[in-house]
Amino acid sequence: MMFHGTWGYVHLPTKSLLETLEESQINMAAYQDAIKNVPTMSINPTLFMQTTEAEDHYYHVWTSQIATVMKEYIGHPSKTDGAISTKPPVLEQISCEVPTVFMLKLMEESDNSAEGIGQVLASVQQQSGLTATEFSSRLQPMDGDLATIQNFNAIRDIRYPSSYPEHSLNNIIFQLGGSHTIWNIAQAILTSHFGDASSENNLGVWQYLEAIGIPHEQVIQKKDFTLMLQQMELVHHATLFHCLREAKSRP
Predict the structure, then answer these.
(1) Does pLDDT of 123 surpass 70?
(2) Are 113 and 152 in contact (CB under 8 A)?
(3) Which of 44, 86, 104, 154 sits 20 to 30 Å CA-CA off 10?
């Protein structure tokens, strides 16, 4: 399930996906067993390092981006045989199968408080057709933005400890949705390179934005993260274009 304002979406897994899963490993007991050692789990830095395959793909992504800028802004190759591809190899193809989605009404108006998230969960349980006991006995993975997750954790902390499943909310696991994750990562990258717009001598990204006609104060916003990503891509193209022109002008 995914929260989106006053509405929610229940995404049912496809039959082909369910056939690849072991039913005994997708229940509350299996989930609790999997996370019981998380507080004491040692984190190995090598888990975050790229594999050889990932490094190769990263190389092809860079060369394809350079080739794209070269082709769009500088010139076309006279011969395409052996030319660098402008499309990197696909890592993991997302299924284009039309999903089965049901909509649920969560609340009359948006309420981001802990009380509001409690009302949302009660509304989800009622519209699912399950009793409170049945709903709380099943693992319920949900997607939401950072504020939703923080508010849910707040209300669960208030109810801790509790031996009643309907009260403890331990059957619900929240994770950031894909779009929220991408936005948070992109915002962190942009913010770290943005620079100080109050100083004309500062050579942060804000200078690039102004140079290509984008007001720097309108870039970092939560209402349209797609536009923010597109503007970051334009800055990236401008940077590559500058490097290519500099390299071309040198003997």
Answers:
(1) yes
(2) no
(3) 154
